C-alpha cells in the first residue's frame, strides 16, 4: 500500500517542463507495478543512470540500515522519513500513523555530471542524487512531488539521504545544482524513452534525439574514435590496423584487463599525444602543445601556477584554435594528453563510453 501526505503549497505542474508530475507519475507507476530498479545509459550522461523505487520501512529493514539509523540518532526508519518530510515541507507522520506500519514510497535517481569549473581541479565528475517524494496538494489524491538533492556519494545511505536538501529546480542555488537540473531533464527524457512512456506534447523536450538508442560497437566505432582523437592525422593503413586491434581487445574478457590497457597505450603512442607526469610546468605545456599543433604556441597564466591549475588557462588559449585539451584516463599519476576539435568533444566522450577507452575532459 502506498501513502502520501499533504504539503503546504499549491500544486506545481508546469505543462512545458519535463520535471512535472505528469512525467514523473508514469515513471513511478512503472517502477511500482513492473520493475523497481533500472540501470541504463543515456546519451550525454557520463557512465550509467540508476533509478530505484525504495520505500519506508521495508527498504531499511536490514541490519546495515538499522545500524545506520541508530548511528544517525533515530530509533526507526519512520523517524528518518519524518526528517525528509520536514525538509520538503510535507506533513509528518503521527505516532498513530507510524503504528499502522504502512509503506511510503520514494524514487532515488543517481547519475554523474560534469563538475563545476572550480571543482574540476579536484574531481572528474559529480554524483547527483535526486530523491523524489510524492505528496498531495489541495487534494486527497496524489498529485504533487518534492525533490531532495545531494551531490555526495551515499557510502552511509541513511546519512546520505538525511543530508539531502530541498531542491528548487526552477531556481538552483549554485552552479552544481544548475548543471544537475539541466542533466536531470535529459535523464527524465531518457527514462521515458527507455520505458516507452509517452511524454505529453506540451512538454519542451531537452533533446530531439533518442537518448537511449543502443549503438552497436564494431570496428567502425573504433575507426571513428581514432579519427577524431587523432584529428584525422593518421595513415589509412595504421587506422585500419589500430581499429582491428582495439576492437579485438574490446572483445576480450575482463580478466585480460592489462592486455587491453596495453593496447590503449600502443594506440596513443601512435598518434600525437603528450605523456606527462602529474606535475608539470607551464613551459612543458607550451612545448608539447606546440609539438601537437605543429606551430609555436603560448598562453597566459598567473605566476606560480602549475599542473592541473593550468588547465583553465590552457583551455581558454586553445579556444582560439577551436581545440580542447583532453586526456586518456591512465588510472595512475600521469596524464596522456591529446588535442581534439571542440566540435568533436561530445562525440569522443560518447565513443569513449561505448569502447571503454576512457578519455576525459580536463
Automatic annotation (TrEMBL):
Domain named DUF6630: residues: 222-359
Domain of life: Bacteria
InterPro entries xrefs: DUF6630, DUF7821
Pfam families to which the protein is assigned, alphabetical: DUF6630 (PF20335), DUF7821 (PF25134)
Sequence ranges assigned to domain DUF7821 in this UniProt record: 23-198
Record-given protein name: DUF4303 domain-containing protein
Species classification: Bacteria, Pseudomonadati, Bacteroidota, Flavobacteriia, Flavobacteriales
Amino acid at each position: 500500500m502506498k501513502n502520501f501526505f499533504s504539503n503546504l503549497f499549491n500544486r506545481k505542474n508546469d505543462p512545458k517542463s519535463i520535471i512535472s508530475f505528469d512525467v514523473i507519475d508514469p515513471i513511478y507507476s512503472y517502477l511500482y507495478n513492473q520493475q523497481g530498479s533500472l540501470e541504463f545509459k543515456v546519451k550525454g550522461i557520463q557512465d550509467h543512470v540508476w533509478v530505484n523505487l525504495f520505500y519506508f520501512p521495508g527498504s531499511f529493514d536490514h541490519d546495515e540500515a538499522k545500524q545506520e539509523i541508530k548511528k544517525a540518532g533515530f530509533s526507526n526508519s519512520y523517524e528518518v522519513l519524518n526528517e525528509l518530510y520536514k525538509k520538503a515541507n510535507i506533513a509528518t507522520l503521527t505516532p498513530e500513523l507510524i503504528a499502522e506500519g504502512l509503506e511510503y514510497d520514494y524514487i532515488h535517481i543517481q547519475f554523474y555530471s560534469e563538475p563545476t569549473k572550480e571543482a574540476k581541479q579536484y574531481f572528474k565528475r559529480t554524483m547527483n542524487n535526486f530523491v523524489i517524494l510524492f505528496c498531495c496538494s489541495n487534494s486527497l489524491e496524489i498529485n504533487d512531488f518534492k525533490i531532495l538533492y545531494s551531490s555526495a556519494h551515499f557510502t552511509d545511505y541513511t546519512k546520505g539521504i538525511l543530508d539531502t536538501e530541498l531542491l528548487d529546480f526552477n531556481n538552483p542555488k549554485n552552479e552544481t545544482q544548475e548543471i544537475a537540473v539541466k542533466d536531470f531533464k535529459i535523464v527524465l527524457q531518457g527514462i521515458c524513452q527507455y520505458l516507452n512512456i509517452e511524454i505529453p506534447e506540451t512538454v519542451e523536450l531537452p533533446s530531439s534525439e533518442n537518448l537511449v538508442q543502443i549503438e552497436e560497437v564494431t570496428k567502425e566505432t573504433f575507426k571513428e574514435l581514432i579519427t577524431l582523437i587523432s584529428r584525422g592525422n593518421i595513415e589509412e593503413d595504421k587506422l585500419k590496423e589500430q581499429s582491428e586491434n582495439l576492437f579485438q581487445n574490446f572483445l576480450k574478457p575482463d580478466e585480460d584487463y592489462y592486455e587491453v590497457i596495453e593496447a590503449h597505450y600502443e594506440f596513443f603512442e601512435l598518434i600525437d599525444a603528450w605523456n606527462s607526469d602529474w606535475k608539470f610546468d607551464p613551459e612543458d605545456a607550451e612545448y608539447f602543445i606546440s609539438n601537437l599543433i605543429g606551430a609555436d604556441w603560448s598562453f597566459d597564466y598567473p605566476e606560480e601556477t602549475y599542473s592541473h591549475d593550468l588547465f583553465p588557462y590552457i583551455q581558454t588559449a586553445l579556444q582560439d584554435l577551436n581545440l580542447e585539451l583532453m586526456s586518456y584516463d591512465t588510472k595512475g599519476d600521469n596524464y596522456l594528453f591529446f588535442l581534439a576539435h571542440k566540435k568533436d568533444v561530445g562525440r569522443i566522450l560518447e565513443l569513449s563510453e561505448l569502447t571503454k577507452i576512457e578519455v576525459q575532459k580536463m
